[in-house]
UniProtKB/TrEMBL annotation:
Cofactor dependency: heme
Protein name as it appears in the record: Cytochrome P450 90A1-like isoform X1
Organism of provenance: Rhodamnia argentea
GO molecular function: heme binding; iron ion binding; monooxygenase activity; oxidoreductase activity, acting on paired donors, with incorporation or reduction of molecular oxygen
Signal peptide: none
Cross-referenced PANTHER family: 3BETA,22ALPHA-DIHYDROXYSTEROID 3-DEHYDROGENASE, CYTOCHROME P450 26
InterPro entries in UniProt: Cyt_P450, Cyt_P450_CS, Cyt_P450_E_grp-I, Cyt_P450_sf
Binding-site list for heme: C421
Keyword annotations: Heme, Iron, Membrane, Metal-binding, Monooxygenase, Oxidoreductase, Transmembrane, Transmembrane helix
Pathway in which this enzyme or protein is active: Steroid biosynthesis; Plant hormone biosynthesis; brassinosteroid biosynthesis; Hormone biosynthesis
Presence of keyword ATP-binding: no
Compartments it resides in: Membrane
GO annotation terms (biological process): brassinosteroid biosynthetic process; brassinosteroid homeostasis; sterol metabolic process
Length: 475
């Protein structure tokens, strides 16, 4: 009996020790503090400070001030919830890479309603993985090279050819990226139908910026109505194409892939939500970068001259109306520097929101389960520690002898991890082709005092009027 007692006691020692260790670890975990910061007033938190900060011209006033006081990981309270902000590249990478394990994407209900519940941006788990890779495969380099480039070149020219002597560049860029997305998603050429769809889209996008009180906002209600109209128009297209595909017709576009069941046999509603969100994701982002690249080039004549030289060299080997080919796109190294630099200083996607799925320990702090987290890409992209004279537009920093691998590692304009932007190459090609035809066909000057705020914030002036002179080399 005694022997049995001793055996049990001996066997229990490691178990008890393990339990104690676990308890200690869990206590330690819970004892790790929250990142420092202030939660502001009850309910509103620091939301008002956030909104008023972005009415100034400083690109990151809210984050800059708090990083100065608390460091690159801090706690605040915005839009009704305590939120941890990260301006730290390592933490941002950790957040992106742990998508689906420790963090999941999280959008307010008002945005989810506008996107549609079956959109890729809201999907999680296995379904997200499958649909993300389907989207990636529709916009990868070889598809762009073999199928999409020819339409991008044609539609960009078609647009530029119709320009008058004075245009609103942002408006024109939006028209172009919308037409490109519609063509790539469902093979529709531009016409009255695309233009009236785009008008509704503008209203939907305005709805994204009505936070934090969408239910009281006319803009939001108008956005929801416009979303319904967009969905109705797309449903008609989906039905028609479904009929055609049942009769054996096949189109090599995103809609074709969805109808063929590559996404697991989707319903009309699922396909429409999916398309609506893709159009949102690829439209405003790319057109803003096009416009701001032109703005920065106009303000940096040396860069504009170097860019022109690169494109005129490509044109010199081609007939006037000959389209750009993949090899041409691949011989635009300085253009890529300009695109990189514009994305660094002026990306409208300044970072991403996530929600913690468990208590997360990071850098000596705990972020409790269920908390909101904001990984700020822009704060890192504008940090002097990684980019010398970070707030100056300097495309040469991306040339082969620059920037340090340190800077490249912290550069995430398209996000990363399982939610890496599937349109990153497509966006680059669209911007490069646009710049090619612009600089080889026109000279320009801003038409009036330039009111476009240098860094795009929610208050960005959205037009950028310019006066054009036609040189007519490539159109
Ligand atoms: C300059 C242009 C663009 C920028 C700066 C940009 C940036 C981003 C970023 C940062 C994300 C990650 C969001 C997150 O992690 O929550 C993202 C996701 C996404 N982007 Fe882009 N994007 C651009 C163009 C495009 C284009 C042309 C398309 C069209 C194919 C596109 C489609 C998407 C989609 C569908 C997602 C969601 C991916 C997912 O949640 O799995 N984007 N984009």
């Amino acid at each position: 009996m005694m022997a049995l007692f001793i055996t049990i006691a001996l066997l229990s020692i490691p178990l008890v020790a393990a339990a104690l260790l676990l308890l200690r670890a869990s206590l330690r975990r819970r004892l790790l503090p929250l990142p420092p910061g202030t939660l502001g007033l009850p309910l509103v938190g620091e939301t008002l400070q956030l909104i008023s900060a972005y009415k100034t011209e400083n690109p990151e006033p809210f984050i800059d001030e708090r990083v100065g006081r608390f460091g690159t990981l801090f706690t605040t309270h915005v839009f009704g919830e305590p939120t941890v902000f990260s301006a730290d590249p390592e933490t941002n990478r950790f957040i992106l890479q742990n998508e689906g394990r420790l963090f999941e994407c999280s959008y307010p209900g008002s945005i989810a309603n506008l996107l549609g519940k079956h959109s890729l941006l809201l999907m999680t788990g296995g379904l997200h993985k499958r649909m993300h890779s389907l989207t990636m495969s529709f916009a990868n380099s070889s598809i762009i090279r073999d199928h999409l480039l020819v339409d991008i070149d044609r539609l960009v020219r078609l647009n530029l050819r119709s320009w008058s002597d004075r245009i609103l560049l942002m408006e024109e860029a939006k028209k172009i990226t919308f037409e490109l997305m519609v063509k790539q998603l469902m093979s529709y050429d531009p016409g009255d139908w695309t233009e009236s769809l785009r008008k509704e889209y503008v209203l939907v996008i305005e709805g994204f910026f009505t936070l934090p009180f969408p239910l009281f906002s006319t803009t939001y209600r108008r956005a929801i109505q416009a979303r319904t109209k967009v969905a109705e128009a797309l449903t008609l297209v989906v039905r028609q194409r479904r009929k055609e595909s049942e009769m054996g017709a096949k189109e090599e576009d995103m809609l074709g892939a969805l109808l063929a069941g590559d996404g697991g046999g989707s319903s009309d509603e699922e396909i429409v939500d999916f398309l609506v969100a893709l159009l949102v994701a690829g439209y405003e982002t790319t057109s803003t970068i096009m416009t701001l690249a032109v703005k920065f080039l106009t303000e940096t004549p040396l860069a504009l001259a170097q860019l022109k030289e690169e494109h005129e060299k490509i044109r010199a080997n081609k007939n006037r109306s000959e389209g750009l080919e993949w090899n041409d796109y691949k011989s635009m190294p300085f253009t890529q520097c300009v695109i990189n630099e514009t994305l660094r200083v002026a990306n409208i996607i300044s970072g991403v929101f996530r929600r913690t799925m468990a208590d997360v320990q990071i850098k000596g702090y705990t972020i409790p389960k269920g908390w909101k987290v904001f990984a700020s890409f822009r704060a890192v992209h504008l940090d002097q520690e990684y980019f010398k004279e970070a707030r100056t537009f300097n495309p040469w920093r991306w040339q082969s002898n620059g920037p340090s691998s340190n800077a490249v590692n912290v550069y995430t304009p398209f996000g990363g991890g399982p939610r890496l932007c599937p349109g990153y190459e497509l966006a680059r090609v669209e911007i490069a082709v646009f710049l090619h035809h612009l600089v080889t066909s026109f000279s320009w000057a801003p038409a009036e005092e330039d009111k476009l705020v240098f860094f795009p914030t929610t208050r960005m002036q959205k037009r950028y009027p310019i006066n054009l002179q036609r040189r007519n080399m490539s159109l």
